[in-house]
Design a protein that fits this description.
The structure is a single chain. By secondary structure, the chain is of the alpha/beta class. 34% of the residues lie in helices and 23% in strands. The chain has seven helices and twelve strands. Strands 1-6-7-8-10-9 form a six-stranded mixed beta sheet, with helices on one face. The radius of gyration is 18 Å and the shape is globular.
C-alpha cells in the first residue's frame, strides 16, 4: 500500500463539487485554500474536488470559474504540499493537472503516516458495494481503454457525455434506498484489515460523522468527510478535517 509521509497539522476536504453553477461554494473554497496555506503543513483533497472532470486538457483554455479554482490551488501548492485525489466525479484527474498546479496525486488508497500515527485515506466509493449498478459503472470508467476512448473525443462531446451520465445517475439515485448508497460494513472491515490500521477517513457519502466500531477485537474509527454546498443547501454546508499530534477534529465552514 502506497504511503504518504506527513508532518505537522494536515487538513483534508473532499466533495466540494466545484463547477459553473457553484459560485458561492467556489468563493468559500478559495477562502479555505488561503486559510490552509496559512495554518496547515499539507492539504489533501481526496476526490470530487470538481463536479465533473472531463480531462486535464481543459486547463489549456479554462472557463472563468475553473481558472479561478486553478489559480487558488496553484497558489496554495506554492506554499504547502497539495495532494489531489480522484473521486467518482473527477476520476480523470491526471498528472498533467497535478504538474500544472505543482501538486501531487494521492495514491488509491493512501496510507497516511501522520503525527498521530497511520491513517487510511480513500475517496470512499469503493466501499459502497451494495450499489451493484454503480460498482459496474465505476469499473467501466476506471478501465484505461474506456478512458482512452473517452479522452479521444472532443471537449464538447465529452461535456455532453458527462452531462448525460450525470442526469442518468441522478435519476437512478432517486430510485435507490439511501442505505444502498452508503458504505457496506463488510467492505469497510476488509479495508481495515488490508491496511492494518485503526483509523479510516473517506468522503463520497455526504454523511459526515465519526463512527466507532470493533473489527477483529480492535477498536476502530471511521471518519466521514463532509460535502460542500453553499449555493443550493439551506443552510449552506461544508467543512474539513484536521489531523495533528492530538488526533482528528472536524471544522465547520461557519465555525472556521
Amino acid at each position: 500500500m502506497n504511503k504518504v509521509a506527513l508532518q505537522g497539522p494536515v487538513w483534508l476536504a473532499s466533495d466540494i463539487h466545484l463547477g459553473p453553477a457553484t459560485p458561492a461554494t467556489s468563493e468559500a473554497f478559495l477562502g479555505f485554500l488561503d486559510a490552509a496555506a496559512e495554518e496547515a503543513s499539507a492539504l489533501l483533497l481526496p476526490g470530487d474536488i470538481f463536479d465533473a472532470w472531463i480531462g486535464d486538457d481543459v486547463i489549456q483554455a479554462p472557463p472563468p470559474w475553473l481558472a479561478a479554482a486553478l489559480q487558488g490551488l496553484k497558489r496554495t501548492a506554492a506554499r504547502i504540499p497539495l495532494w489531489l485525489g480522484r473521486g467518482n466525479r473527477d476520476f480523470l484527474i491526471g498528472t498533467d493537472l497535478a504538474d500544472a498546479l505543482g501538486a501531487r496525486l494521492l495514491p488509491e488508497p493512501a496510507l497516511l503516516e501522520t503525527d498521530f500515527g497511520q491513517i487510511l485515506l480513500t475517496h470512499g466509493d469503493e466501499y459502497c458495494t451494495d450499489d451493484a449498478a454503480y460498482q459496474q459503472f465505476r469499473a467501466m470508467v476506471r478501465n484505461p481503454q474506456w478512458q482512452a476512448q473517452f479522452l479521444a473525443q472532443s471537449i464538447p462531446e465529452r461535456l455532453a457525455m458527462a452531462q448525460q451520465a450525470r442526469g442518468e445517475s441522478q435519476a437512478a439515485n432517486q430510485m435507490k434506498a439511501a442505505e444502498i448508497m452508503d458504505v457496506n460494513a463488510q467492505a469497510v472491515e476488509e479495508g481495515f484489515r488490508a491496511a492494518g490500521v485503526d483509523i479510516l477517513v473517506h468522503g463520497h457519502t455526504h454523511r459526515p460523522a465519526r463512527h466507532v466500531l470493533e473489527v477483529d477485537g480492535r477498536r476502530r474509527e471511521r471518519w466521514v468527510l463532509p460535502d460542500w454546498d453553499c449555493d443550493h443547501a439551506n443552510p449552506p454546508r461544508g467543512g474539513w478535517l484536521v489531523i495533528d499530534s492530538d488526533g482528528l477534529a472536524f471544522y465547520d465552514l461557519d465555525a472556521g
